[in-house]
């Protein structure tokens, strides 16, 4: 079991470390844009034009057991499950896709302005990132925007909010091209903690280190398991958070 702790990013916001609980294989061709865990399987969306997909993946083997490819000119982004549906964003096409969750067959499209990056859900609300400090709040039934959460850390806007996951009342968000995850209070938009994952994988050894960055968070609420990975990473990690060290005076 590996242990990593980092120096605080800011004294006012606690910084959590991690231990690696387990390593699972991950498809190195999967440019991960969205990830969630449900009923024993991972569901993943992949990006890049000509390589975008939505897929159901066996956790232990990393084997793709079900997959739907997107049209060649569509750049797939984040996904979320809602009832018996799977909802997927696209990057700059201003459209989202709704699938039957069981078959991964497309059912319909919906539209939204601006870019689409990531999705997660809680109760009847979806939370959507678009790379800005503002998370959109959508009605899960109508897919219409009903609110906005402005995300700040120490009073400053947090840019490049990417892949999202709802974990125990907080929104976890990857920060694009950073080694950390923000823990966001959805009521205020304040970052109440950072998870520092520096050293989890040496991305300098990947074929495209500038693009193949940390991205992908999945939470197994029943078994209290947290999974993280990155774009084209060879490994998906199950991690356990380590509480921040107390600061000496």
UniProtKB/TrEMBL annotation:
One GO molecular-function entry: glutaminyl-peptide cyclotransferase activity
Q: Cite the Gene3D superfamilies for this sequence.
A: YVTN repeat-like/Quinoprotein amine dehydrogenase
Spell out the protein name for this chain.
Answer: Glutamine cyclotransferase
Where does this protein have coiled-coil stretches? none
For whether the record's keyword set contains Transferase, the answer is: yes
Pfam family membership, one: Glu_cyclase_2
The protein's UniProt keywords, in alphabetical order, are: Transferase
């Amino acid at each position: 079991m590996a242990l990593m702790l980092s120096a605080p990013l800011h004294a006012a916001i606690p910084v959590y470390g991690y231990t690696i609980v387990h390593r699972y294989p991950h498809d190195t061709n999967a440019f991960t844009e969205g990830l969630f865990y449900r009923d024993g399987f991972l569901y993943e969306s992949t990006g890049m034009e000509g390589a975008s997909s939505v897929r159901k993946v066996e956790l232990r083997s990393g084997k793709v057991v079900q997959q739907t490819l997107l049209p060649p000119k569509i750049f797939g982004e984040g996904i979320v499950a809602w009832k018996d549906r799977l909802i997927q964003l696209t990057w700059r096409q201003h459209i989202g896709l709704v699938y039957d969750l069981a078959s991964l067959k497309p059912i319909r499209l919906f539209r939204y302005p601006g870019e689409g990056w990531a999705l997660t859900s809680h109760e009847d609300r979806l939370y959507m990132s678009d790379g800005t400090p503002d998370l959109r709040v959508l009605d899960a039934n109508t897919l219409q925007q009903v609110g906005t959460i402005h995300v700040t850390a120490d009073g400053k806007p947090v840019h490049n909010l990417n892949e999202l996951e709802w974990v125990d009342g907080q929104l976890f968000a990857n920060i694009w091209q950073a080694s950390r995850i923000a823990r966001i209070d959805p009521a205020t938009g304040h970052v109440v903690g950072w998870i520092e994952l520096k050293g989890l994988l040496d991305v300098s050894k990947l074929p495209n280190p500038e693009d193949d960055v940390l991205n992908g968070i999945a939470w197994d609420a029943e078994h209290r398991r947290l999974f993280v990975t990155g774009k084209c990473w060879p490994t998906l990690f199950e991690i356990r958070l380590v509480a921040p060290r107390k600061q000496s005076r």
